[in-house]
User: Fold these one by one.
Assistant:
Number 1:
Amino acid sequence: MTNAADEGRRDSATVATASPPARLPAPVLARHQAAVAAISRAYAALPPGSPVRLAKRTSNLFRFRDPPSGQTARSRDRAPGTATGGLDVSAFTRVLHVDPRARLAVAGGMTTYEDLADATLRHGLMPLVVPQLKTITLGGAVTGLGIESTSLRNGLPHESVTDMEILTGDGRVVSATPGGEHAGLYHGFPNSYGTLGYALSLTIELEPVQPYVHLRHFRFTSPEACMEAVGQIAAERGLHGHRADFVDGTVFGLDEIYLTVGAYIDAAPWVSDYTGQRIYYRSLRGPREDFLTIRDYLWRWDTDWFWCSRPFGVQHPAVRRAWPRRYRRSDVYRALVAFDRRYRLWETMNASRGRPPREAVIQDVEIPLERSAPFARFLAAEVGMSPVWLCPLRLRGDQSWLLYPLQAGEVYVNFGFWGTVPLPAGRSDGYYNRRVESEVAALGGRKSLYSTSFYSPEQFWEHYNGPAYAALKREYDGAGRLAGLYEKCVRGQ
Ligand SMILES: Cc1cc2nc3c(=O)[nH]c(=O)nc-3n(C[C@H](O)[C@H](O)[C@H](O)COP(=O)(O)OP(=O)(O)OC[C@H]3O[C@@H](n4cnc5c(N)ncnc54)[C@H](O)[C@@H]3O)c2cc1C
């Protein structure tokens, strides 16, 4: 490893020379450097003023843009590196190196966690936080704030990044490290959603795993009791004698909430399989104890996209048997939703049956632990969705991050709720999402920006540190080659 000062000096040599910091095998390094040089040239060659997009095969964003007039959805989404202005990032989709001794991995920014986890599990290691959906990418989770059941212990994915190689909006390739020349970019990259630059490679810390996870599902009959238990787990790293290497929860109703606490173990008496006929989220209401291999644990939510596979009928035994196993994946369901949104199939069918229009309420929010029970009650009373996913988290480090300010040392609970709700008469789209936004603000929480947002510019910049963003935007994308954060996340540009 080179030190941060060396990195800083190397950065200033600019384009295509800010190689990843961990030592890569020579052929891998040469290939990677050639790819960095190629993408720098491709970026510089994009026609001025044309929108810049990552040409990725997958996405987990939930903002579906309408095609610009005169363009069909199909032509707009045409693949990468073509006349549509997509930046071909296919050279950055691989794990470049795993160093088991240093417990570090270097991976392309568009490497999926499925590939990343497979590569590291081979060495008995995994990233400190592995988001639950297989096609979430390392760069996407760092810039878009992933979260998972290790987040109470390990914080958020960006907190275990030691170095990011970033193609900035103004076309430089820089190495952003916590203490180097581009430390500001390093600290402002999380929650920037590709509006300051794109991570081409990242170096991340890994932790050792054991082969199995022993799960226990604890039931609570009120949100208050559940949140008290979260506080206990945060303080003691366990509950009723069960070690909490992993913890998340599921709300089926205010009187039926489960916290699932997982502990690494070396040997299991039996293991469950939720990639076949059985469905993971339903298992929470069954026996209080379960065992999974570590790989199956990591992807326990992916097979049924949490519970969101339900509208496709895949949870019906007959349909499930007929539905090929390789298509029981979150990216397949998301592609179906994208298709539906594009052609408004479900909306049209709903209207033709005389049913009220529905609003998509697809959000993840973080609420301070002591105000999480009131938020659970608000959600049940005012939005009324079920199930709801819970994931406690606490920043791993002792500093807050620029564009998504959470208090260091404070325990938060992430609420994930994904579905549609019928609109009351006289209300239009945005009614529920706006209520959620104002309740989150009133309770001192934060809302992730991967989905729809309705904030005014003033509210938005108050929540997401407008002055810090403006300074970073000036420094790394002064000419505004990339969309701004507000334009991208609220206006959907
Ligand atoms: C229903 C649902 C449930 C979710 N649940 C979870 C969850 O449980 N845990 C979790 O961690 N997350 C969850 N997410 C959110 C997800 O982590 C974020 O949307 C994340 O940003 C997606 O990453 P991606 O790799 O798929 O990126 P994309 O969807 O392709 O892109 C996301 C954004 O990041 C930018 N971007 C992508 N790659 C890079 C890069 N290399 N450098 C810079 N910018 C980049 C893109 O420009 C875009 O603005 C959920 C999302 C949905 C829709």
Note: The first strand starts at residue 53 and ends at 55.
Number 2:
Amino acid sequence: MPEGPEIRRAADRLGRVLTGKTPEKVELLMPGLIQHAAKLSGQRIMGVQPRSKALLIHFDGGHSLYSHNQLYGRWYVVRIGKTPRTGRSLRLAIHTRDHSALLYSASDIAVLSAEQLERHPYLCKLGIELLDPETTLADVRAQVEDERFRRRSLAALLLDQAFLAGLGNYLRSEILYVATLPHDVTLGAIDAEARQRLADTAFALTRQAYRHRGVTNDLERAARLKAEGLRYGQYRHHVFAREGLGCWTCETPVERVDVSGRAVFFCPHCQAS
Ligand SMILES: [Zn+2]
């Protein structure tokens, strides 16, 4: 599933061709939504905003187009008249004079008024948006000090969008590794210095992944490994999806455990409790 950095890059791509434009045509191709396209026709697009793993396209008439890609949804941007080569089914299309923005396979799409947007069950539960340009490190540090989260394990918290929005499975393992924290301790069980390290790492690493195509490894190391001939998937991460391979720092084999059905990867030496 795409995580915050991938969603924000998709939003950037869409924003470049949609923001400020009045689409020639908006097509909503899912049953139950087709008649809602009229609410958006003839309106200018004010902006494209990622919210955690959802994406909002705001129209100047006051409505927003909400989409959550779940596991399979995928956006394409093409020159007008072109169709991407894909076996997926088209759910939503926005055509401007020059481009088409096409969403395939997603099933969670809605046209929302400003009031509906505020009450939306997914959006209103979201915590601090790590990639929102308005979010500061101080906001993230305050969130890790919030008593509400004290009794939860770090592994559970780092996937909870009500804690830090925009994190997913690869960022969870990578943040814990860089912050040198085990996955199975509670937030309340680590000291203030470790909580601050968690906040600082979550903030910095998510932004690095956004700016550097999902690379969470140390950037100098990643560049060196790439120069040595390693593929993207091999140099991209510290520990994620590297089970059995040596930790880049200490060479201890990376381990994997499943927590609530999703894998956490860690170095048992660097992240000892
Ligand atoms: Zn290690």
Note: The two ends are 29 Å apart (CA to CA).
